[in-house]
Amino acid sequence: GQNIDQPTEMTATEGAIVQINCTYQTSGFNGLFWYQQHAGEAPTFLSYNVLDGLEEKGRFSSFLSRSKGYSYLLLKELQMKDSASYLCAVSRYGGATNKLIFGTGTLLAVQP
Amino acid sequence: EAGVTQFPSHSVIEKGQTVTLRCDPISGHDNLYWYRRVMGKEIKFLLHFVKESKQDESGMPNNRFLAERTGGTYSTLKVQPAELEDSGVYFCASSHPQGTTGTQYFGPGTRLLVL
After folding, report:
1. Left if phi > 0, otherwise alpha if psi is -120 to 50, otherwise beta: which for A71?
2. What is the mean pLDDT of residues A2-16?
3. Is residue B65 within 8 Å of residue B55, measured between CB atoms?
């Protein structure tokens, strides 16, 4: 079967670092995406990992371990605007389709 | 460059009525996807178009849902007749045709409420 697990909610302080974990089980793994979604808005692409290791992009980094079925999103120097839902999504290849399998999302609240 | 757009942003209809949702993908994106998020649940895949062809419609809930993409540009998703459990947010996403790992860019969604 397919299963994506991530914490439902997290709270962090402005200026701090927060790590959002995601574990997955799926067949046809073809990479893992992280999206940011503010309430009422479109999910916005943050990062993509297909090989093991860390991908860094400014204040955001994402890590993948395929053997462990594990990823995390690291947010540094937190800002109030980072308060949002963070969606972990596994790209699953089947036929000619790359469908995304989503977790339920982690709602991050950044406090002053 | 314009992003993925969806219309309407909100729709409130009564059970048994018909609703048609529209998605305009990013220009040049051959891949178009529909997803749905029911309250309290994760976003789930509905179907995938490559140009005007349905590549995978394994996520479509039942035959009350009909998706089209005539001409390979915009797509419509019609629900007829709508049921209470169809309420949720319907997202559209598009990706560049090159490669199989193209990032999917999402629209803001259509919030459907069936009363």
Report:
1. beta
2. 94
3. no
Contacts of residue A99 in chain B, CB cutoff 8 Å?
A: 33, 45, 48, 56, 59
- Contact (Cβ atoms closer than 8 angstroms) between residue B56 and residue B47: yes
Q: How far apart are CA A41 and CA B3, in angstroms?
A: 12
pLDDT of residue A13: 97
Tokens 């991050």 sit on residue: A108
* Residue B50: Cβ-neighbour burial (10 angstroms; 0-12, 13-18, 19+): middle
Residue entry with tokens 């574990």:
A23
SS3 of residue B3 by DSSP: coil
Rounded Cα gap, residues B50 and A97, in angstroms:
9
- In DSSP terms, A101 is beta-bridged to A90
* CB < 8 Å from B in window 74-93 of A: 87, 89, 91, 93
Contact present, A22 and A72 (Cβ < 8 Å): yes
Q: Which residues of A touch B108 (CB under 8 A)?
A: 40-42
pLDDT per position as a tens digit, B5-48: 999 999 999 999 999 999 999 998 999 999 999 988 999 999 99
Amino acid identity, position B25: P
pLDDT at B81 (0 to 100): 97
Per-residue pLDDT at B99 exceeds 60: no
State phi, psi for B102 to the nearest 5 degrees: -60, 135
